[in-house]
């Protein structure tokens, strides 16, 4: 059977954990002789396939500027029916799920490999509701497959943890003030970045000397700079510079997220460079498999986070010991291992017949009276009345499901995750 694979994803962001994963997985398939196609979403303002192509190479655009559910589904479906790949991998494009279902129903002999890069109620509910057409769930965290085992047989669940590149520079130990690092998307909603301001205030109150470096960009950066002008802001930093200069010269890597994370790449990258992780206890932190050292604090519990940093500052031998442990643990998580496990999963998937069954056509309702008309898609495209959205996820939603019992789902995820401890 031909080895052809189609990745369908958003194009409003080109840097971050998922994008790092994509670089590795695309390269793995190309080097293994697969026919690889990358399709990227087009939106009115944020999703720009041409800009995305400058980072990832040639892409096929699928146009969702009309903002209607039907328009988005049809755009992805057309690409699938044109390419007719052996495997389709949707990444952060919720409407790709019904599009793949429709293509299967129209006779396209393709398999749906659904990678899960987050832990949230909406994404897991999508995985549950579309189980009849999902050939393989590929989680990065044991908690994801543990939760979904009620809806999928074992043969359709696999875990392929993310990885990290080896360290390229020797780690330097602190001389006086502790060097704290936050690296990643500067976004209060998903990353709780303003907790860094509260942590800094608490450390000052305790008279703990520190230097805080912020590496990254995002919508909350201007406000973060306003609240904490004394932080060292680097803006976007290339992965190469992170490994050559930033991680090796930090003592502690901090994470403040409350929900949504599945495998925090900056934590494992910092660890392989000798940084001690001080991270929030998001659901999935134990299932990720790498938090065997470092400190964990409840999200928003700044006092406990400060306790951990104070211990490291007062006990240099503890800092050195945990730095060595971090490097040892992180060495278990390599991109070469991730590539191998992913390719093994795709090769095995090719040997199986595609699954097809009833799948939901219910999708997220978009704003405006026009969307409720049967011909909304045609009218919008004819009149070029493309709606404005506040961000890239508005233009192309990452999930379809609205979850009424979200808190119950989170509670169950937390319970399952703590069983891993």
Notes on the structure:
It is a single chain. The protein is α/β, with parallel strands linked by helices. The protein folds into 2 domains: about 5-165 and about 335-415, Rossmann fold (3-Layer(aba) Sandwich); about 180-330, Rossmann fold (3-Layer(aba) Sandwich), CATH 3.40.50.2000. About 40% of the residues lie in helices and about 15% in strands. The strands form 2 sheets. It has a 7-stranded parallel beta sheet with strand order 3-2-1-4-5-6-7, sandwiched between helices. A 6-stranded parallel beta sheet has the order 10-9-8-11-12-13, sandwiched between helices. α8 crosses α12 and α12 crosses α13 (about 315-330). The longest helix is centred in the C-terminal third of the chain and has 16 residues, at about 335-350. The model has no long low-confidence stretch (mean pLDDT about 90).
């Amino acid at each position: 059977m031909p080895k052809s694979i189609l990745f369908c994803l958003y194009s409003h962001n080109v840097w971050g954990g998922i994008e790092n994963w994509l670089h590795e997985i695309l390269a793995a398939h190309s080097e293994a002789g697969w026919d690889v196609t990358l399709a990227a979403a087009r939106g009115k303002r944020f999703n720009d396939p041409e800009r995305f192509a400058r980072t990832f190479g040639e892409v096929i655009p699928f146009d969702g500027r009309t903002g209607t559910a039907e328009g988005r589904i049809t755009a992805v479906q057309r690409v699938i029916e044109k390419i007719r790949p052996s495997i389709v991998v949707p990444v952060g494009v919720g409407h790709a799920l019904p599009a793949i279902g429709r293509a299967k129903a129209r006779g396209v002999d393709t398999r749906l490999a659904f990678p899960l890069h987050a832990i949230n109620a909406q994404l897991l509910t999508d995985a549950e509701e579309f189980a009849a057409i999902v050939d393989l769930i590929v989680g990065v965290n044991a908690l994801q497959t543990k939760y979904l085992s009620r809806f999928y047989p074992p043969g359709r669940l696999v875990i392929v943890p993310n990885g990290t590149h080896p360290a390229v520079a020797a780690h330097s130990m602190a001389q006086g003030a502790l060097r704290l690092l936050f690296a990643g998307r500067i976004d209060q909603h998903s990353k709780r970045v303003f907790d860094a301001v509260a942590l800094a205030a608490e450390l000052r109150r305790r008279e703990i000397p520190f230097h805080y470096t912020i590496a990254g960009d995002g919508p909350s950066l201007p406000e973060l700079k306003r609240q904490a002008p004394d932080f060292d802001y680097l803006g976007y930093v290339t992965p190469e510079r992170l490994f050559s200069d930033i991680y090796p010269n930090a003592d502690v890597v901090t994470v403040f997220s409350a929900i949504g994370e599945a495998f925090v790449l900056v934590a494992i990258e910092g660890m392989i460079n000798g940084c001690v992780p001080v991270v929030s206890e998001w659901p999935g932190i134990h299932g990720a498999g790498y938090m065997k050292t470092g400190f964990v604090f409840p999200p928003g519990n700044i006092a406990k986070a400060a306790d951990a940093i104070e211990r490291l500052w007062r006990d240099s031998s503890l800092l050195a010991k945990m730095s060595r442990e971090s490097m040892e643990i992180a060495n278990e998580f390599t991109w070469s291992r991730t590539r191998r496990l992913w390719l093994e999963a795709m090769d095995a998937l090719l040997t199986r017949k595609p699954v097809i069954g009833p799948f939901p056509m219910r999708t997220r309702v978009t704003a405006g009276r026009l969307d409720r008309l049967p011909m909304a898609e045609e009218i919008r495209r004819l009149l070029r009345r493309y709606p404005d959205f506040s961000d890239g996820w508005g233009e192309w939603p990452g999930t379809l499901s609205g979850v009424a019992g979200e808190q119950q789902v989170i509670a169950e995820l937390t319970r399952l995750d703590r069983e891993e401890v």
